[in-house]
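About this split. The held-out portion is used to measure sequence recovery: a designer receives only the structure tokens and must propose an amino acid at every position. Recovery is the fraction of positions where the proposal matches the reference. Here is one held-out target exactly as it appears in the evaluation file.
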């Protein structure tokens, strides 16, 4: 799909800048220019498309639809809703509280909170561009499974008492608010939203690709294979533990996944690292601590961690 871009960037780095193809600097710069532009193109196109489709939905309609649903079907719907929301783990929390105000069961709200950072359009766009549709489809499937089962388990444990702040239920039944927009208005709203999201994440992309380019050009494959590659049982747990203290979105961490897998890290281990970064961040825990008891946060992180570990091991086994 992007062969033309690779050739163009090769001409820039190796012909115009006169860097050697086999040199570390040349390989690093070629990777940086190529991946940065490729990811920017993918982000703009896919975020615009998803944003345009999202104009046919609204939060109130989703809350109306989820209200009164049985738990398991509600978990499935909430997890699917996470795919079409652009939230990172921290920015999903206000909508999480809104779901609770709408008297939606706590397990269903947690399915959304898990799914939103794991399966948002940015992660899907970059996975598709870097690894193709098959890997992307498997990832989405496992991400939804973690969100559905994780939220369902939390709901069954009856943990509402661990919500620390009073969440005032909305009076009466929610009304389905209809939004009528012309095609031109939908396109403009989607484009404005795409520009806004792009402005917020482009630095993450540049930093992430920059680190990836350094690893690609200057870190030997043997080093990655020795310390982070292979199928040792502890590789996936270590990757998850390394990801938790970090805070980034998929745009910042995905370029590292591409490089690490190219250097010898198994894909499941690399994806477990990415999922831990996006779904189990310490900033998220700090925000949640203001509204949830530490016991509920620990249960939430424990269930999601187990799901991520399972995803990592399964990916390593089947790919």
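Reference sequence for scoring:
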């Amino acid at each position: 799909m992007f062969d033309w871009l690779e050739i163009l960037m090769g001409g820039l780095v190796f012909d115009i800048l006169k860097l050697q193809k086999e040199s570390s600097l040349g390989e690093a710069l070629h990777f940086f220019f190529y991946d940065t532009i490729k990811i920017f193109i993918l982000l703009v196109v896919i975020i615009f498309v998803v944003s345009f489709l999202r104009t046919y939905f609204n939060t109130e309609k989703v809350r109306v639809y989820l209200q009164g649903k049985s738990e398991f079907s509600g978990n499935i719907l909430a997890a699917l809703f996470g795919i079409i929301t652009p939230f990172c783990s921290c920015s999903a929390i206000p909508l999480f509280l809104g779901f609770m105000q709408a008297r939606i069961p706590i397990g269903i709200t947690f399915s959304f909170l898990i799914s939103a950072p794991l399966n948002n359009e940015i992660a899907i766009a970059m996975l598709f561009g870097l690894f193709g549709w098959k890997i992307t489809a498997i990832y989405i499937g496992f991400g939804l499974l973690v969100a559905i089962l994780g939220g369902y388990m939390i709901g069954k444990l009856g943990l509402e008492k661990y919500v620390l702040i009073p969440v005032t239920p909305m009076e009466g039944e929610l009304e389905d608010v209809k939004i009528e927009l012309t095609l031109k208005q939908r396109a403009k709203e989607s484009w404005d939203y795409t520009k806004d999201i792009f402005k917020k994440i482009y630095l993450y992309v540049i930093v992430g690709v920059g680190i990836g380019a350094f690893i690609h050009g200057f870190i030997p494959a043997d080093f990655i294979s020795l310390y982070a590659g292979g199928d040792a049982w502890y590789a996936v747990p270590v990757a998850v533990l390394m990801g938790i203290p970090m805070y980034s979105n998929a745009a910042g961490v995905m370029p590292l996944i591409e490089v690490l897998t190219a250097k010898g890290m198994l894909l499941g281990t690399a994806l477990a690292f990415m999922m831990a970064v996006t779904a189990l961040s310490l900033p998220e825990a700090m925000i949640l601590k203001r509204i949830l008891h530490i016991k509920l946060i620990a249960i939430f992180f424990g269930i999601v961690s187990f799901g991520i570990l399972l995803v990592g091991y399964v990916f390593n086994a089947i790919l």
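Annotator remark: The two ends are 23 Å apart (CA to CA).
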